[in-house]
Amino acid sequence: MGTISNRISELGTENAFVVLNEVKQMQARGIEVLNFCIGQPDFCTPENICNAAKAAIDACKHGYTPSNGIPELRKAAAGMFSETRNVAVAPEDVVIACGGKPFIWYSIYALTDHGQGDEVIYPNPGFPIYQSMIKGLGAVPVPLYLRESNHLNFTVDDLRKAISPRTRMLILNSPHNPTGSVLSRSELEAIAEICIENDIWVYSDEVYSRISFDAPFESIASVPGMLERTVMVDCASKTYSMTGWRVGYMANRKLAPHITRLVTNSDSCAPYISQEAVVEAMTGDQTDIENMVARYKRRRDVFIDGFKEIPGIQCHKPGGAIYIWPNITEACKITGCRDSEEFRRRLLEEHHVACLADIHFGPRVPGEGQHVRFSCASAAVEIREGLERINAFIRKHM
Ligand code: PLP
Questions:
Q1: What distance in Å separates the CA atoms of residue 45 and residue 131, rounded to the nearest whole number?
Q2: Where does 199-252 have alpha helices with state H?
Q3: How far is Cα 170 from Cα 150, in angstroms, rounded to an integer?
Q4: Are 36 and 300 in contact (CB under 8 A)?
Q5: Residue 384 half-sphere exposure toward CB, CA atoms < 13 A
């Protein structure tokens, strides 16, 4: 019997899929679960985009494409990056891949050396794949804590303390999963100054760039001196409600040829049909996209207003993305839950409301209490019903 490598055990996972499985099992038993656990847009992909895919099928666009993507999509993505980030990106700086996620490992692979003590700083709480891939690729994960006292961002002081001579890369994610926090222009400028001073790459995970509610989206790449050291990443998944189509795009001139080689070595290319569809998504009518963002904003407001009425819950208003990150420390005390995970489990089992716990996004931040994450990928009517059930759960114990 062959052995399994030691390094595979370093890989983590995304627990949203584990909880989703629990939900699916309950639903199979006939239980009506309100599911707020996954960041999967509940909208169908807009019709014009689907039609572009159908046209691609009819035109026999069924084969491999260049590993860095079809020229039309790289041109459209370069235009989109340039216009929305106020930077100059050329089509040859762009690589297309199978979603936003692969760029995380491609970039860590290209910018750190295995087992050499190279450090990557990443936000905690944060998208669990950051820590998983840093460890999996033999680099050293250095968490940067997000704090409520700093609007669920890290402080520049904390960043300075996290940097060492081994730091190779800083991962930023604004708007942020799971907190919905957004880095302001002045914060980005302060971070940029530190990265330039210490010669650090930035992986800027901008997959929620279009879902920014209260201020226009800002990328660190637009701070002078940052474009060349920023791996700017966005994807079709959330923006156009295309999670299953698997298309993402990155821009960085120096890194593009290396990332292209990684695509050749892994997926060969992103699906041709999906790439054709994303050209239409980027260049076609934007009305459906604007409507989706407006609905996410309304849903955010329903959650925030609802939580104000529920004892034991306090919640920052997220500036973007599709998540709500309430502090439930008091709610845990009222309900007799040991921690956020027990709260999440009992809410699911006793009241059939599914969410994720903070521990699904990295170790709890010391002194920050207990949190859970709700996704806004459900209709407002379901959110209201969910809020009623959460209210009932907590008040039952008062
Ligand atoms: N980055 C962040 C912060 C995410 O939240 C997600 C998905 O939830 C991704 C990347 C992955 O996006 P994709 O589905 O396009 O691979």
A1: 30
A2: 236-239
A3: 19
A4: no
A5: 4
Residue pair 74/68 in contact by the 8 Å Cβ criterion:
yes
Q: How far, in Å, CA of 37 to CA of 360, rounded?
A: 11
Residue 97 beta carbon below 6 angstroms from any ligand 1 atom: no
Ligand 1 atom 12, closest CA: 100
Cβ pair 78, 94 in contact under 8 A: yes
Alpha carbon distance 240, 286 (integer Å): 9
pLDDT, one tens digit per residue, over 112-150 is 999 999 999 999 999 999 999 999 999 999 999 999 999
Shortest CA distance to 96 belongs to which of 280, 286, 240, 268? 268
Distance, CA of 285 to CA of 48 (rounded, Å): 8
Query: Quick one: which of 7, 47, 398, 45 has its CA closest to 238?
Result: 45
Query: 127 alpha carbon to ligand 1 midpoint, in Å?
Result: 8
The confidence score (pLDDT) of residue 16 equals 79
- Establish whether residue 126 lines the binding site of ligand 1, counting it when its CB lies within 6 angstroms of any ligand atom: no
Domains and CATH numbers, the chain: 6-44+288-395 (3.90.1150.10), 63-283 (3.40.640.10)
* Nearest of 49, 53, 73, 131 to residue 251 by alpha carbon: 73
Q: Which residue shows structure tokens 């800027």?
A: 204
C-alpha pair distances (Å), 118 with each of 89, 115, 144: 29, 8, 16
Please choose from 45, 96, 101 the residue to mutate so as to test ligand 1's pocket, defined by most ligand atoms within 8 A of CB. Answer: 101
Q: Where are the alpha helices (DSSP H) in 142-212?
A: 156-162, 185-198
Burial class (CB in 10 A: 0-12, 13-18, 19+), 360: buried
H or E stretch including 232? strand 230-235
195 CB-side CA count, 13 A: 28
Do 168 and 231 touch, CB atoms closer than 8 A? Answer: no
Choose the residue to mutate in 38, 103, 177 for probing ligand 1, maximizing ligand atoms within 8 Å of C-beta.
Answer: 177
Identify the CA nearest to 219 among candidates 197, 250, 260. 250
Q: What is the pLDDT of residues 331-384, one digit of tens each?
A: 999 999 999 999 999 999 999 999 999 999 999 999 999 999 999 999 999 999
Q: Can you tell me whether residue 18 is helix, strand or coil? A: helix
